[in-house]
Amino acid sequence: MTGLLATKPRAADVPALAEAALWHELNLTPKPGLVDRANSGSHRDMDYALFTRSIAAITPWFRRFEAAGFAYAHFPVSEQLRRLRPFGIACEQAMLAATNGVNTHKGGIFALGLLCFAAGRLRGQARRLSADALCQAVSEMCRGMVQRELAGKSVATTAGERQFQQYGLTGARGEAESGFAMARSVPGVSLHERLLRLMAVNPDSNLVSRGGIEGLHYVQRYAQRLLKEGWDLAALEAMNRALVERNLSPGGSADLLSVAWVLGEI
């Protein structure tokens, strides 16, 4: 067996996976209440073409997030979010410039940006890159975020703060602080099944913003019923019509679907 050399497996390219995840999520059709190839779901100010421009604008920043994580790898973990935040803000500005001010991917920038930054941090510390290691690094960086940014506010001035005070919902911050526990808990043979599993359990702040806690519970029960009784593409199209009629969009679950896909590929 001469001539065969053992090769070290290449580490996952997290920025490339993050970009691919956004395309997979966008192209998944039908996608109840969300923008896909067929329609704009419950979004009157968005369509497929707008999302393609948004993805093109924000994905170059994924490499910059990773490079920043590498550059700051040996700074204390408590400083990491402060160092990442300016890059996240700049990425959001690039998105808004490409979409004429429409928020297409703010949640995706937050979640996928954290994964890319964490990947750079692990590489800078010469640590093995795995899904577990990435999620642990994100959790460590985000430790205390819910307490600082939600629980510590006596007067709610943002939707996230109001939802925390009214319902105890921690949103994207809580999921990041948990190391994306929910995104990792939804196995499925297809992206559609993973999305349904997420919608069935995710306390999606987007749904609460649009339809109150009743809107959230409606979508959760609908997804749970489909998972229990069986579903096909026609059932998902019917769910899309029902969510559009109620102006409901599970955008938080769409963001977590992208995270779940990246972690699954790693």
Automatic annotation (TrEMBL):
Q: What is its EC number?
A: 2.4.2.52
Does this UniProt record's set of keywords contain Nucleotide-binding? Answer: yes
Name the enzyme's class: transferase
Q: Which UniProt keywords apply?
A: ATP-binding, Nucleotide-binding, Transferase
Give the molecular function GO annotations. Answer: ATP binding; triphosphoribosyl-dephospho-CoA synthase activity
Among InterPro entries, the record links this protein to: CitG, TriPribosyl-deP-CoA_syn_CitG
One Gene Ontology term from the biological process aspect of the record? prosthetic group biosynthetic process
Please write the reaction equations for the catalytic activity of this protein. 3'-dephospho-CoA + ATP = 2'-(5''-triphospho-alpha-D-ribosyl)-3'-dephospho-CoA + adenine
> Its family?
Belongs to the CitG/MdcB family.
- What name does UniProt use for this protein? Probable 2-(5''-triphosphoribosyl)-3'-dephosphocoenzyme-A synthase
- Annotated organism of origin: Yokenella regensburgei
